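The following block was generated as part of the benchmark described in Methods. Ligand: guanosine-5'-diphosphate.
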Amino acid sequence: MELERPPIANAEQILLVFALEQPSLEVWQLSRFLVKAESVHLELCLCLNKRDLVSEALQQQWRARLQGWGYGPVLVSIAQNQGIEELLARLEQKITILAGPSGVGKSSLIHRLIPDAANVRVAQVSGKLGRGRHTTRHVELFELPGSGLLADSPGFNQPDMNYQPQSLAQYFPEARARLALGHCQFNDCLHRDEPNCVVRGDWERYEHYRKFLEEVCDRQTQQQQLPDEEGTLKLKVKGAGVQEYEPKLELKKYRRSSRRQRHQTLQEYENQSAAELYEAGEDWE
Ligand SMILES: Nc1nc2c(ncn2[C@@H]2O[C@H](COP(=O)(O)OP(=O)(O)O)[C@@H](O)[C@H]2O)c(=O)[nH]1
Ligand SMILES: [Mg+2]
Ligand SMILES: [Zn+2]
């Protein structure tokens, strides 16, 4: 099988894997990953692994809670072979990128779905990954039983909040649903304390939205305060060492991502959004 472009460019879906226990499911972390996954504008499949470690009642609680967030998670146990058929059905006929923090069972999942993983790799691609660094990392693409392709990726721990403040609400299904039903009074409403806002409300993750928005705005303020001239930055690099170089790279990345938000196409997605997903894995650096 031959792919003309890196598989990431044709990717249709992100499979975000978390564990119900070991490590225990932490809602703020999950929320950060979900927002990051939403921000690349692909379909999103949420999979909660290790259901063998929690009671049936607790599984139902999580299902209900995440339904309130707008997600219908697939609960599986790779170890006990539960829920695998349902998961495979969600992956059928699609190119899916695997993501999630370390320890949740991503490698186990690949080995369960593709027992012969070492021999069925259909492509290896590389790209520019991570915080502005020109590092190459290989992405492995596996052919799933039945149909579909799965792209393996290293985990990332703390997704960056590199979004536009105005876009953030779009990455919460709860906010999207409210915006689909009505309009805020102000076009540029950030859904904080503005009058006649349709998003502000008593939904569970509204506090996540507010916290993330704060981080997004802080980040933007920091970037606006950065000197814009090359010369200044170079001086800084010479004077203060490599660490000082980071902000310049972050700034460039930020500019790229704002352009992407205006003209999002899969093609443009090719080089960068995968990079964001691969960022800061435990084996990074
Ligand atoms: N109890 C339980 N443990 C699991 C399950 N799936 C994976 N594990 C264990 O979780 C640990 C981390 O799995 P791994 O696949 O390396 O996670 P990764 O870091 O996301 O690739 C390993 O010790 C696995 O054996 C499961 O369904 N139930
Ligand atoms: Mg792994
Ligand atoms: Zn609003």
